[in-house]
Amino acid sequence: MRPGSDSALFGAVLHELIRHDWLDHEFIDAHTVDFDLAAAAVTDMTPAWAAGICGVPAARIEEAAEIWGTAATGMMLHARGIEQQSKGVDNVLAAINLGLATGKFGKPGCGVSTITGQGNGQGGREHGHKCDQLPGNRDITNPEHRAHVAKVWDCDESEIPGKGIPAQEIIEEIHAGTIKGLLSICFNPAVSAPDTNFTSEALDKLEFYAVIDFFLSESGQHADVVLPGSLHEEDEGTSTSGEGRIIKINAAVTPPGEARLDWQILLDIAERLGRGGHFQYENTEEIFEELRLASAGGTADYRGATWDRIEAEHGLFWPIPEVGHPGTPRLYEGGRFFHPDGKARFHGIAWRESAEVIDDDYPVWLTTGRVVSQYLSGTQTRRIKALVDQYPEPLCEMHPRLAEHLGVVDGDLVTVTSRRGDITLPANVVNTIRPDTVFIPYHWPGGKAANQLTNRAVDPISKMPEFKVAAVRIVKAVGHTSTTDVRELDLTEGRA
Amino acid sequence: MAPAAIDGDVEPSGWDAFQARKGRNLVALPSLVATQLLTQGFIRRRSRARWLAHQFVFWGCILAALVTFPLTLGLLHFESVGQEADRYQVYLSRVGTLKFDAGSILGWTIFHALDIAAVLVLAGVFIFLRRRLHDPGALAVERSGDFLALAGLFAVSVTGLFLTVSSTWLGGRFYAALNTIHALTVILGLMYLPFGKLFHIFQRPGNLGVAYYRQQNAEGPPAVCRRCGDDFASAQQIADLRDVLPQVGFDYTIDGDADDDNYQDTCPRCRRASVTLAQTARVGGFG
Amino acid sequence: MKQARYGVDDSPIFVIDPSRCIGCEACVQACEECGTHRGQSLIHLERVDRSVSTQTAPMVCMHCEDPTCANVCPADAIKQTEGGVVQSALKPRCIGCSNCVLACPFGVPKYVAEFDQMMKCDMCTDRTSEGYAPMCASVCPSEALWYGTTEEFHHTRTGSLLDNWLFGRQHVHTKVFTVVDDLAGGPLDALAAPTGSWLDDPFGLETS
């Protein structure tokens, strides 16, 4: 499918489910609300209509609808592809509609779920890593939630701040001059935020920038103070997987040199800020013990998850509301959801376009993403020779038809330009990508950063930037390089 | 998909090929002997400790053989020079050569050559043994003969050293018995050579032949992969393999249009790809 | 973990299902750490043809019951363990001729020029002889490389186990299993014509 067309596909599939009555009426009636809204929104979303938007044959969309609609069980897993868009929430809600319409929730072999993009991306977002939240999936604006957490933290409710702003908005505010100081931990926006030229300008405008990181990242080079932190191999704690399983991580080595454990650095900062009394921890287990209590009663309830049990039982699934509770390997069993009435919500998702669409000046879709050998902004993986050898530099994947149109063969350098910036890199001509789209992985900094091209437009609800959809133009550049895996050239295979 | 090019350039046999290149092969011999047989860099690149151990044992054995065999065959002996009790002359066959003082460093070295050899071998044996006992990986692929070879080298060296001990410090006591034991270990060791690990002493020089075979084949045409069309080995070696496989009971011919179509004309990379694609098709495809 | 020796106690089996490979190369890194050939990765993992597919091809030694490699070795350097595991060439014997590299139907042995030696996967003899999974199988996230008992396999996986291959006219039986939907198809024929897939034309360019 062409980038940004996901909600059209999901809409057309729902249209087909309704047309063929591949619906679980019992489930819809008993456990959901607002099916009518969702149905009304897809009245005109025929497969033929979606085919024009998605760029795949209508027959394939019908086939997909039949597979999903007639299967007794089914899971839909999505990752950043449908989420990192200016309409990411639309896409995800449209995907959930398909699970609800066919009753594929709370049963073995069923579910609609996201695969998180980072280690402990799930655990972090459950406990206030997102600045509009409090532990246990609590809402920082909800008075009851604030009161509970204030009690655990032994502070006055009024001392808990209000809603913060999301990462991308922080960068916008820094650029606008309203935010003047920043403390970041393991955050490398110079590589991982959209529109890297804009991000670098912003970081240089900060009056004070302190960075805690395990290696000197590209963002750290903009910092006034860099505090050497630690890797997860050096510290103890838990991580929560995309399936909601709390997993124990144990230290294998101690941080080298002047590096310290991140939480110890934070305790020292709290002490200097005069709030050390609230941060009296001897070890990470004590921090976790507090988290257990803070999360108690929330939807992501960790109360019964002691470290002993997590280790002994190879992980525990939340919610686990009391000590001795077996945990909850499958959410929504019996069709009980976390809304106050216990019912899931359908949403009516109207079609809209991405923030930027192709035109005569920028006629090719760009989508960015990852390669298997590199991790996130590459702060760790670009230092490991075996991984660098696997995929040493970004390549621009393009279809042979587009390559032919551009007069490019595999390995030729091409310059890809968007309204934000440009990048010159080797073409990797493969027919596993659409002819109207190119793909560039984002793990590299500076002149090799794919995010020089991406759009800062964000989703109105999640505030997630649009990494996955941009319009670009491509021209052949001077130069050629081999895209062959260098390691394959080493194979002697019996040659003399 | 064309079968590998097997044409007139391919020699009918390795020996003929060797004969045809006799001159060049002779020229190449000294450097091959030096690198493959004497300095053994291929072992050093695997592990320095292993190489050191092997070099100790190797040169110890060479030294011992150079002394023992000529001595027992009468090709080497020592005579005192005139009436000087302390001066000796080395006789190779019947020709008198070097004269030396028994009490000099040279003299001591010559008379203790076998002891030096024994010490070298023992040093090597201990490094090998240490590795065998401390490296779980080496232990896992241990074969019964590996220890036997080390034990044999140890026995020969130690019983030999006991002879020196007896003559130097014990006034020759037990010499006859020790001598018999030493002779026995040497004879047993030599008899063991064709059966155990030490057989590689005779076998490894075959590597020189391989080097010649390679040099010869590199000048001939390459084999072309029937699947990807790339060169992947020498046509000579593939032809030889196609020859030898039926003799050891394998039939990789392909039932098809071409008479001599053979799976062995596939490059190793394409063999792996073929296996993956064929398996994937049997589970309903990739993706 | 059961203390069972591969092929002898008949308890654990090694299964390779290339169709499940996602090309992450964890096995390549893990292989390097095996005690019997530290520093040298002996597993193969390649892209089949990146220009048309993202499919990758992992390959470990299949441990043939009658190994072609050992039969064509002029130095008699390739031996099988009691349990049928075909080992790397004996270091003192191997003369580096590469006959095994070229003759193996699966393309497994590697000629390591640096050491002038053939080296190959020995199913982590140090681990499997103690009942542990080979390094590669212990890290494979998609279970393309898998080690366990037949009962565990059938309990957690679909498909049938096959240890019978065809290369031209040559039948080969292996100690390592692969997975097929249906055993009725007979031995796995490496030269079978590939079946058509929607992935041959993923965007409907030829049909629309």
Keywords:
A: 496 residues, alpha/beta, Dimethylsulfoxide Reductase, domain 2, Rossmann fold, Barwin-like endoglucanases, 3 domains, disordered C terminus, B: 287 residues, two-stranded antiparallel sheet, 62% helix, elongated, disordered N terminus
Please characterize this protein's 3D structure:
The complex is a heterotrimer of chains A (496), B (287) and C (208). Chain A contains 18 helices and 20 strands. Chain A is an alpha/beta fold and 496 residues long. Chain A has 3 domains: 110 residues, Dimethylsulfoxide Reductase, domain 2 (3-Layer(aba) Sandwich), CATH 3.40.228.10; 211 residues, Rossmann fold (3-Layer(aba) Sandwich); 126 residues, Barwin-like endoglucanases (Beta Barrel), CATH 2.40.40. Helices cover 15% and strands 22% of the residues of chain C. At the B-C interface, helix 7, helix 11, helix 12 and helix 13 of B face strand 3, helix 3, strand 8 and strand 9 of C.
In short:
The complex is a heterotrimer of chains A (496), B (287) and C (208). Chain B has 287 residues and is mainly alpha-helical. Chain B has helices spanning 14-20, 22-39, 41-44, 48-72, 105-111, 113-134, 136-140, 144-169, 175-192, 200-203, 206-219, 235-247, 268-281, and strands spanning 76-80, 87-92, 95-101, 222-224, 231-234.
Proportion in helices of chain C: 10-25%
- SS strand fraction of chain A: 15-25%
Estimated helix fraction of chain A: 25-40%
Structural category of chain C is alpha/beta
CATH-defined topology of one domain in chain C: Alpha-Beta Plaits
The radius of gyration over CA of chain A amounts to: 24 Å
Mean pLDDT of chain C: 89
Broad CATH class of one domain in chain C: Alpha Beta
Measured between the Cα atoms of the first and last residue of chain C, the distance is: 54 Å
Q: Tell me the number of helical segments of chain C per DSSP (H or I, 4 or more residues long).
A: 6
In quaternary terms, these chains amount to heterotrimer
Question: Are there runs of chain C of 5+ residues with pLDDT below 50, and where?
Answer: none
How many helices of chain A in DSSP terms?
Answer: 18
